[in-house]
Amino acid sequence: MSTLAEIEEALPKLTGEELLRVEAMLHRIQREKTDTQAAKGNPRLQALDALQSRLGLDAHKADAWAAAVREARR
C-alpha cells in the first residue's frame, strides 16, 4: 500500500483536533519548502541565513541590533 493510500485511509478516522494538527503540519512543511527554495535561488538570502546562524540571531537580538543601528544613525 502506498503512503498516500494509507493517509487517505486514516484521515476519516481522525478527530477534529487531530485533523487540525495534520493541517498545521502540512502548512508548516509547505512554508519550509517554499522558504528553502527561495533561499537556494537567491545568494543574498543564503548569505543572510548564514550570517544569522553564525551570529545566533533570534528575534530579540535582531530587534536590539536594529535599534542600535537606528540610534547610531541619529
Structure, briefly:
The protein is built from 4 helices and no strands.
Structure in words:
With 74 residues, the protein is mostly helical. It contains four helices and no strands. Helix 2 crosses helix 3. The mean pLDDT is 82.
Present the secondary structure layout.
Layout: H1 3-10, H2 16-41, H3 43-55, H4 59-73
Shape: elongated
Compute the CA-based radius of gyration.
Answer: 20 Å
What is the rounded distance between the termini?
Answer: 65 Å
Low-confidence stretches: none
Number of E-type strands: 0
Q: What's the helix count?
A: 4
Kindly name the structural category: mainly alpha
Order of helices and strands: HHHH
- Which range does the strand content fall in? under 5%
Please estimate the helix content: over 70%
The biggest sheet amounts to: none
Key features?
74 residues; mainly alpha; elongated
